[in-house]
Amino acid sequence: MMNKxxxxxxxxxxxxxxxxxxxxxxxxxxxxxxxPVPDEVLFSLFExxxxxxxxxxxxxxxxxxxxxxxxxxxxxxxxxxxxRVWCEKAPVLALILSKTVNVKGAHNRAHAFDAGAAWGxxxxxxxxxxxxxxxxxxxxxxxAREVLGVPDEYELHAVIAIGYQGEKDALPxxxxxxxxxxxxxxxxxxxxxxxxxxT
Length: 199
Fold this sequence. Notes:
GO terms for molecular function: oxidoreductase activity. Helix content is 33%, strand content 15%. The protein has helices spanning 7-12, 22-25, 39-50, 69-75, 81-87, 111-128, 141-148, 173-176, and strands spanning 61-66, 92-99, 132-136, 154-163. α3 (39-50) runs antiparallel to α6. The radius of gyration is 18 Å and the shape is globular.
């Protein structure tokens, strides 16, 4: 359990109700050091994801990792240029996908919901371990499917950059001003009582 907020988090985020600091300390920086992540640290993230809840215990999520130069270069062509400008320094890239068909051969309506839970567990464990993560929706799923040989029954959700946080000034100037934890809307705009829209 983390017992304090990171300095940049204290400046930019404030919880309305008490929660463990890990929830606010998790954000999505873009500046990565190129230092490798040891296996015992990296795979603890996926161990955390493994224990996420899922409908009927289907565990529909899968991850495809790219750590070697060869594997990362296989990923780069399907990642949007705006993301490549910073994510190429990350020592680990991971594509998260989920199986859309359940063990009975029917459509699994919860596959994306469950994959989101697995990503959340992974991201929180990364924060707890002193790592940063940044999930990117800016990629071409059709090209990724073709390049990585992903079967049709899987939906591709995001590419996740994983590593240690770098310095803000290592980013292109237009990204430096965005390199801080973002805020959140008030709970009253998110949680409704009884019917939609009633706070």
